């Protein structure tokens, strides 16, 4: 449907809705919640998330792709436009890297008031081993214009969002697109990409929220001016008022999550443990700077204690890191909190609200009933 | 936690809640919706659902299982209790079979009033190739008591449901457990079972709703009286009043679903197509009797027309079947319905309400806007 470099019109984009006070989740949000899926937090136990447990967000439908006939076109402000088939790409130097992805909307449904969109609680994360070929040498071969500013990645997924019909497309600043970590990826955990993760080809841009890792990638277009498509200019913005243009959503902010201890109640997901030694564990990450500290509170945030953070893995700077904490649990109700700090700051304990529910890294609160 | 053959107490089970009129989905239901996941309906295109797209429902947490040390115990009313490791089972005769699974709660969130539990719309389905060994010869080797009535399957998943702490356990009538199609399964689509599908071992009892296919299987106990555990006596019952005991949920009722045509709106999932020839397609199934007919309505149910139903596959009687329908779409709003008929009856067009939202096979309604 998209014939041009910038396939997306800005107007007449509707505004995102914010739920009324006390308003329950609607059938529209539920339809998103049941088709997209989060990572059940007990899967924090895996260094590498199995594909079916890794979070998935698809804006439109999962395209039906034939790897044998798939083509990627590289064009726009380049000297030599390229058309590449999957085989062409797989003959190039391959890199496998362990990278955490998190949806920019993670935590949205915990905000008050609640921005109406995909209603994530805290489970829109996962870490996988991705295999692909670096993007920068391909852009070099195509002959980047010295005037290049943005690189636009377009997927085969097509639909309407707030009145705008579009192929999903995201622009990246050139400096990000030519980072050595930016890959065109065809495998996940040693297997061909599953359909829902972008088969047969997606972008991987470590450190960025998930919206930037364009799936079902069909086109890469170099622009000499900033991309103004819907997903950059409208959707993924940090703004409080509907009328402001807001700041773009970019790198992943620090977060730590707790693997749920003990056993759950089916309906409330409340946790139960027995009194005594309760080892707590989980993962922490940041896409913008190295994680330096993880702290745990078992008294609802009144006091904090340092967790033991696993050493950074120099080979996988964009993976999550394990943390552990030895809790001696006393009978009664408790609320466990965990927060990460990176070189730029600490997760907030009070919400920093924005009207599209983006890049919200409010600390997790886990009610735990300790039994005698 | 479960030391006896019947590990589950009936009292003091709380009652299932029914939502008030107009009440939105709560954070408790949302927590279930974001951790469990449905099959995005465009995946109806696949004969065999990739594992990460197959629906998943876990009552409690996904257990951490070590296949190397996993043991299955077969006991109760048998002459020779058995303890089997995964290797022992994998040396036995193996069968691979294509079987549809559907959650008994599929469609629950479309009921009015809405039973409060996992809020499925219509996506709690999937068809996979399962590999395992038949159960009946194992029961024979163990020496079934002539007085055997039920066979109870217990998983490693543990939690609390309506006040009852339990290992997940389901009883099956003996006649079902010794059907040649009943398998102990260790592989899905040619790969080891993923964690969320029961690794390393689950039951497969083709034709039954998902709750019967016990995952993370650790024990099989033969009873000489009917099993009265929570998941049989309380949870999976068809009842209208809270005080009646109700009928047990057993085999899958007939259903047909439409693969969504055209393209979606992100938020509403409304469909758009261009006027003219619009091929419609989807799948139909029943676990209780062969499907005999699929019908499509493109006018909201006022008129129905036969779809073309793919021939039954004698090798895979419990898989879904493809159907197709050639629609000539005229501009304007339409509502597409599809319904399946099996040898026992047709899907209802009006809801047949029950208070736990079980085995509800109300027809699907898909609003489609046809553009000029």
TrEMBL record, chains A, B:
Gene3D superfamilies: 2.60.40.650, Oxidoreductase, molybdopterin-binding domain. PANTHER family: SULFITE OXIDASE, MITOCHONDRIAL, SULFITE REDUCTASE. InterPro entries: Ig_E-set (IPR014756), MoCF_OxRdtse_dimer (IPR005066), Mopterin_OxRdtase_euk (IPR008335), OxRdtase_Mopterin-bd_dom (IPR000572), OxRdtase_Mopterin-bd_sf (IPR036374). This is Molybdenum-dependent oxidoreductase-like protein. GO terms for biological process: sulfur compound metabolic process. GO terms for molecular function: heme binding; molybdenum ion binding; molybdopterin cofactor binding; sulfite oxidase activity. It holds the Pfam family Oxidored_molyb. The keyword Oxidoreductase applies. Residues 59-230 form the Oxidoreductase molybdopterin-binding domain. The keyword Nucleus does not apply. Residues 276-369 form the Moybdenum cofactor oxidoreductase dimerisation domain. Keywords: Metal-binding, Molybdenum, Oxidoreductase. Its cofactor is Mo-molybdopterin.
């Amino acid at each position: 449907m998209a014939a041009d470099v910038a396939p997306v019109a800005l107007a007449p984009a509707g505004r995102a809705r914010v739920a009324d006070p006390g308003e329950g989740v609607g059938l529209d949000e539920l339809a998103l919640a049941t088709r997209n899926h989060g990572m059940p937090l007990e899967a924090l136990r895996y260094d590498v998330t199995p594909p079916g447990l890794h979070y998935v967000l698809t804006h439109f439908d999962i395209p039906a792709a034939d790897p044998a006939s798939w083509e990627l076109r590289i064009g726009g402000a380049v000297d030599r436009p390229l058309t590449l088939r999957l085989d062409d790409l797989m003959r190039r130097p391959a890199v496998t890297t362990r990278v955490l992805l998190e949806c920019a909307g993670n935590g949205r449904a915990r905000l008050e008031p609640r921005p109406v969109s995909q209603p994530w609680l805290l489970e829109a994360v996962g870490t996988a081993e991705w295999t692909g070929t670096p993007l920068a040498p391909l852009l070099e071969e195509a002959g980047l214009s010295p005037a290049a500013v943005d690189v636009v990645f377009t997927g085969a997924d097509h639909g309407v969002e707030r009145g705008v019909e579009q192929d999903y497309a995201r622009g990246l600043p050139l400096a990000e697109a030519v980072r050595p970590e930016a890959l065109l990826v065809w495998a996940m955990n040693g297997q061909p990409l599953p359909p829902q993760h972008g088969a047969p080809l997606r972008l991987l841009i470590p450190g960025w929220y998930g919206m930037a890792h364009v799936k079902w990638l069909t086109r890469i277009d170099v622009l000499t001016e900033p991309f103004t498509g819907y997903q950059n200019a409208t959707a993924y913005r940090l703004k409080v008022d509907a009328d402001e243009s807001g700041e773009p959503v970019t790198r992943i902010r620090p977060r730590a999550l707790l693997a749920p201890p003990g056993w759950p109640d089916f309906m409330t997901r409340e946790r139960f443990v027995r009194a005594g030694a309760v080892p707590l564990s989980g993962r922490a990450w940041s896409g913008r700077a190295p994680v330096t500290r993880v702290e745990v509170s078992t008294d609802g945030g009144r006091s904090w204690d340092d967790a033991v953070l696993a050493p950074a893995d120099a080979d996988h700077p964009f993976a999550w890191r394990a943390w552990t904490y030895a809790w001696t649990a006393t009978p009664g109700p408790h609320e466990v909190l965990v927060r990460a700090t990176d070189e730029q700051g600490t997760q907030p304990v009070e919400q920093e609200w924005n009207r599209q529910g983006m890049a919200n890294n409010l600390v997790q609160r886990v009610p735990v009933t300790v039994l005698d």
